[in-house]
Amino acid sequence: MAEALWTVEELLKATGGKLHGEARMPLTAVSIDSRAVKPGDVFIAIRGERHDGHDFVASALQAGAGLGVVSRVTPEMTAAGPVLEVADDPLNGLVNMGLAARARCHGQIVAVTGSVGKTSTKEMLKVALEASGATHASAASFNNHWGVPLTLARMPRETAFGVFEIGMNHAGEITPLVGMVKPNVAIITTIAPSHLGNFSSLDGIADAKAEIFTGVVPGGHAVISRDTPYFERLAAAARAAGITSIVSFGKHPEADVRMEQVALHAGCCCITARMFGETVTYKLGIPGEHMAVNSLCVLAAAKLAGADLARAALALAEAAPAKGRGVQQRLRIDGGELLLIDESYNANPASVSAALALLGAAQPGWGGRRIAVLGDMLELGEQGPQLHAGLLEPMDAAKVDVLYAAGPLMANLWARVPSDRRGAYAATSEALRDAVLAGLKPGDVVMIKGSLGSRMGPLVEAIRAAHPPLSKES
Predict the structure, then answer these.
(1) What is the third-level CATH fold of 8-89?
(2) Helix (H) or strand (E) holding 445
(3) Among candidates 150, 171, 154, which has minimal Cα distance to 5?
(4) Residues 158, 3: contact at Cβ < 8 Å?
(5) 125-139, 191-205, 400-414: which range is least confident on average?
(6) What is the pLDDT of residues 266-275, one digit of tens each?
(7) Is 323:432 a contact under the CB 8 Å cutoff?
(8) Maximal C-alpha separation, the chain
(9) How many beta carbons lie within 10 A of that of residue 257, not counting itself?
């Protein structure tokens, strides 16, 4: 029998709710998606922008959920199974479950934020920390007002290390989230133009990211990029929050955890770093200098959290890119092959520049080209046109041969690209699809990048559908 994640008594105490019916099985997981419910799940009936979870409680219970958490009870629900009625909003019930899960956890908690690299850093931390003990981490990019409490509520009581990604697009969003997580170690990967449309300057973004320090427990640590010009501002915010242990990382000569050498390969990086007074050489199973730099903060956090540094460094060889964040796949095309680099998850100027550098490091096959397929970077405010036009410089540095561009903002880059390097331009990614598929040939390396709202992911899937894989994703 599966071990219970929650007992009914714990849920009653955490939520102050009222039980209707009797729990019929161990409660082994927490879900907010009725379509993915498994036996033993606690189903939380969250109200979303388009759907109200209460409409799916009965079907979730019929599908095997062990308990529904609701704010209103109907005969249909109670006929299908037990429900826990909480006051006001099931999301508040989820938050209270998350707080209770954090209170019962005696492991070390690491929280990650930053303008770029949060999810990849979180995934690297999971791999590194698992080498030293049971590790629980956010799924996908569950980093918002429901993702953070859901991840907390899913945290097993025996967790040795917890890893939480915390995001924001407005000032004040991180403070309540990190107040739930209460990390022992807080990381800021970097500060870059992301969600700039909601801020008057990068200073505002830095201050909003620095909110992560407000939740660090007494005796905790701050890990901050030394390469960002905002290091001193962020360090001052950490000190203002009462943190005395501030560790810097990066290529900067004064970084506490400093990269000394990096060899960049098509599918990995080999890194030598000076770390806490010793030299550490290790392999990272993810390509790209930006990934190599963020692996430094991963090892710093692992050490500060009490994990074995040698085991953590060794484990990073098994790290792999998260979906839509640099996953590489070789595909068949016309008797040859092409390399697809999927960077479609999201985009801002810093992450697009890093993705272009990754494209530049890839070697096309005989007769092949480096092809960038770029969609609009959103939420950049008045600076959007200028920041899109500015992508020509990193595109040139990466020796990109052909550009395919989608979206009204990306037209600013398209206008700067010489005609002999233009593939096609369209107002939407969907309208660009046929031109991209027709333009690919054996030997090409194609990288796809854009904000979620630009819908570049379907372009990735269209290429995969047209050209079957040669090998597993790397």
Answers:
(1) 3.40.1390
(2) strand 445-449
(3) 154
(4) no
(5) 191-205
(6) 889 999 999 9
(7) no
(8) 70
(9) 23
Please name the helix (run of DSSP H) or strand (run of DSSP E) that holds residue 387, with its range, or none: helix 384-389
Q: Domain spanning 105-318: which superfamily? A: Mur-like, catalytic domain (3.40.1190.10)
Q: Residue 111 burial (CB < 10 Å; 0-12/13-18/19+)? A: buried
Rounded Cα distance, 401 and 443, in Å = 13
**Whose CA is closest to 275, among 250, 292, 238?**
250
Spatial contact of 189 and 121, defined as CB atoms under 8 Å apart: yes
Residue 472, pLDDT score: 54
Q: How far is CA 2 from CA 24, 34, 66, 91, 156, in A?
A: 13, 21, 13, 26, 12
Rounded to 5°, angle at Cα 192 from 284 and 448:
60
Tell me, which fold does domain 327-466 have in CATH?
Answer: Protein-Tyrosine Phosphatase; Chain A (3.90.190)
* Structure tokens given for 93: 């019930």
At 251, the pLDDT band (50, 70, 90 cuts) reads: very high
